Amino acid sequence: MKVMVCGSIGYGHKEEIKKIQEILRKEGFEVLDQFEHDYSHVDDFRDNEELCREIVTRDLELCEKADVIVLVAKHPSFGAMAEVVISAMKGKPVVAFCPEKVRSPWPIYFANKVVRSEEELVRALKELETPLRTIPNVYSDHEAEFTYTKFTCICPVTGLRDIGTIKIRYKPKDRILEYESLDSYFKLFADKKMHHEAVVCKVFNDIYQALNPEWLEVVAEFEERSGVKAVIRKRL
């Protein structure tokens, strides 16, 4: 599982982030390192537009690669909060590491899990590792389709429960889904606050990463609300 650790860099707290990175590496997580190009020495970005573009572009690329975001929520950071919001809106899980008081509601609101110690952080990340299981594809050339009819999550706007059906179609290469694991996987969404689009992106990304199929399509059909029925589709 790829983990990106974000937090306050420009205000002198880089070492705290690097400490968490090292702990997670020792626990076997693949940590994406944003310190390949260090900018913590920059005192003022107002006249550094090109550097700003370079840093933000690189960090957003890391967010895209990450399976989960860890926010070290000890000190304010414009960039870290932007990374959290963007990642959360794409359906990526966020774990807020909060060993001290947090004086803003934003990190807590967007976090799937709030932890207060390094031990809790490691446990939370291990719990987030996908339960999707795959097996070798020893069968002839084929396509597969699965329909899960008991999907639920929480609407982040209303707080109400969304109910829907998820359809998965794909053409495998070397591995296929052990489809009974889908039930455990989809149950992880039950208490998550996610937009419909974020659900589809998350499911698509997890399955694509697990299988690397020839092609994949994920379709989510949600129950009607306020006269509108949502059908979200992603295919590659």
Keywords:
236 residues, alpha/beta, Rossmann fold, GTP Cyclohydrolase I, domain 2, 2 domains, five-stranded parallel beta sheet, four-stranded antiparallel beta sheet, 26% strand, globular, cytoplasm, QueF, GTP cyclohydrolase I, queuosine biosynthesis
Q: Which range best describes the helical content: under 10%, 10-25%, 25-40%, 40-55%, 55-70% or over 70%?
A: 25-40%
Would you give the CATH topology of the largest domain? Rossmann fold
What proportion of the residues form beta strands (DSSP E)?
A: 25-35%
Number of strands: 11
Strand arrangement, largest sheet?
A: 2-1-3-4-5
* Cα Rg: 19 Å
Shape: globular
The main pleated sheet reads as: 5 strands, parallel
SSE sequence, one letter per element: EHEHEHEHEHEEEEHHEE
Pfam families: QueF (PF14489)
Keywords: Cytoplasm, NADP, Oxidoreductase, Queuosine biosynthesis
Protein name: GTP cyclohydrolase I
GO molecular function: preQ1 synthase activity
